[in-house]
Structure formats: C-alpha cells, structure tokens
Design a protein that fits this description.
The protein is mainly α. The chain is built from ten helices and two strands, in the order ααααααααββαα. About 70% of the residues lie in helices and about 0% in strands. Strands 1-2 form a two-stranded antiparallel ribbon. Strand 1 and strand 2 form a beta hairpin.
C-alpha cells in the first residue's frame, strides 16, 4: 500500500508477486485471495484491465476464505466496474446479479454496487434508469454527515452527485445539472474552518 501510494507501482508489483508466490507455495488460500485483490488494484492503476479481471476472478474462487463480507463486496464491485470499462456488459450484469443476491449487497456496499449498475445503464443508453439509480443512492446517503474533521465523510455521495449531474445535463436540464455538479464538488472538498489571522508585526520590530 505504501509503495503504491508513493507512485512506485512497479516495485509494489514485485513485492506483491513475491508474496503471492509464497502463499501459493504454502497453499494459504486466504493469503492468495487477499494478495490477488491487491494485484488486481495494481493492474488497474497500470491500465491493465484484463490482468485485473483475471486476478479478481481467481480471487473470487477463494471467496469462502475471505475474512468478511466487505472483502467480497469490494471484490465484486471492482470486478463489475472493470467489466463495464472493458465493454463486457453481459459479464457485468452477471456479476451484479450475483452481488444483488448476497447478504452483503445491503447498506453502503450495496449503494456502491448500484452506482456501478447506474454506469452500466448509462453506457447501454438507459438514461432514465441510470438517473433513477443515482437518485435512490443519494436519498439513502442523505442522513449521513457531509464531512467529518474537514474530510469527506461520504465519498460515495460526491461520486453519485457528479454522475447524476452529468446525466441531468445530458437530459437537457442545465440549471439542475450545474447545481448538482457544484454540490458534488463542495461535498468532495468541504471547506475547513478559517484560521485566525496572523498578528501584525509591531512597528519597528526586526525582521
């Protein structure tokens, strides 16, 4: 994670592959599954969507070994999103349908999956369906705080608001679309409290 955040993706890939080789050697299923999800994220950063899909599909085969529901929700959300990006809409529908039948398709994870479904609907030309899905997510997010300690408390709200803004502009409602985009930008980067002004230097004070 640290190497990735520093932009040293190639080095992160080497460490990830080394860890994966060790887990395969000792047949540690949980380690293989988790490491494959990291590898998929690195592939996606490098623009290798096919490689990321292959890693996630292999990780899905170890799904019963994943620690908790959020791991599975993240995996299927990423896999569905990548299928959408590569234009394999039938496979994206299959992943999303599988996710919708699972218990972890509830709450915030479920809303993230519905955002992928909204993008899929938009790409398939179903503007009204994509708009409805985005509005449903925003209503579900309405009771969450906009920010906490100066940071976005709900990044999903910003993403969905921006998507809905674009959809609304595409439908021809320029005023509402622009307002949605401004609101999404404000939610993504909430203003921090203003700092008190510095005291002015006293006259004659040495610099």
């Amino acid at each position: 994670d640290i190497l990735r955040d520093l932009g040293r993706v190639e080095e992160a890939v080497r460490y990830c592959d080394a860890a994966l080789a060790v887990f395969r050697d000792i047949e540690e299923s949980w380690g293989i599954a988790i490491t494959l999800t990291f590898r998929a994220e690195l592939d996606k950063l490098a623009g290798d969507y096919r490689g990321a899909i292959a890693a996630l599909e292999e990780a899905a085969g170890f799904s019963r070994h994943l620690a908790n529901a959020s791991d599975l929700a993240w995996l299927y959300r990423q896999l569905a999103g990548l299928r959408v990006r590569t234009g394999d809409y039938a496979a994206a529908h299959a992943v999303l349908d599988l996710a919708d039948r699972s218990v972890w398709a509830q709450g915030s994870w479920g809303r993230g999956l519905r955002l992928i479904r909204a993008e899929l609907a938009w790409r398939e030309g179903h503007l009204a369906e994509a708009t409805r899905l985005c509005e449903d997510i925003l209503r579900a997010e309405a009771d969450r705080p906009t920010s906490w300690a100066g940071l976005p408390a709900s990044p999903l709200r910003s993403l969905v608001g921006a998507r809905l803004g674009v959809l609304t502009l595409e439908a021809g409602d320029l005023a509402r679309g622009s307002a949605l985009l401004r609101d999404a930008l404000g939610t993504a980067a909430p203003r921090r409290p203003a700092l008190p002004p510095r005291r002015r230097r006293r006259a004659g004070r040495r610099r």
